[in-house]
Design a protein that fits this description.
The chain is built from three helices and four strands; from the N terminus they run αββααββ. By secondary structure, it is an alpha+beta fold. It has a domain of about 70 residues. Strands 1-2 form a two-stranded antiparallel ribbon. It is flat.
Length: about 160
């Protein structure tokens, strides 16, 4: 009886595994929309505009202010998803997060860095010994001589610290 159970289990395991399982194509129904991700063209400019509302010529309360546009005015807002690959101000919608209050409470959370520039805020070493050697800003150089004559010793010692 046990031999039959083991034989059935072995046959099930052998027949359930196929080599071409990983290479099968998954067919999808035609109702789903394809999502196409593309890289942004680095030669196209990022235009930040502040267009007036066409109905009454004024901007709404939730709109971007009339001053020079900073990227922080785009933070915390909803965006309209359209087929346009460029990020433009027409896709910016109403406020989702009160970003001014958030930045006042957490000033270290917003660090503006221009595109094409970098700033290293941290560094690392491969070992602790390398860290000790490279992180010393001053070095101590000891020199001199010592002559021990039994009852007394003659010599001169000096230490120099360098930067």
């Amino acid at each position: 009886m046990k031999n039959n159970i083991y034989m059935i289990l072995i046959l099930l395991m052998i027949t359930s595994c196929k080599k071409n399982q990983d290479h099968q194509s998954i067919e999808t129904n035609g109702d789903s929309k394809d999502i196409l991700l593309q890289d942004r063209d680095p030669n196209s400019p990022l235009i930040l505009t502040n267009k007036k509302n066409e109905k009454n010529g004024k901007t709404s309360v939730n709109s971007i202010p009339d001053e020079i546009l900073d990227l922080r005015y785009y933070l915390g807002r909803s965006y309209l998803l359209n087929t346009n690959l460029d990020g433009n101000a027409e896709s910016v919608r109403f406020k989702v997060i009160d970003i001014e209050r958030f930045l006042n409470e957490n000033p270290g959370y917003y660090l503006p860095v221009d595109i094409g520039t970098g700033k290293a805020n941290s560094f690392s070493y491969t070992s602790f010994d390398r860290y000790e050697n490279k992180s010393n800003y001053t070095k101590k150089i000891s020199g001199g001589f010592n002559l021990n004559l039994g009852l007394f010793s003659i010599g001169a010692k000096r230490s120099v610290y360098t930067d």
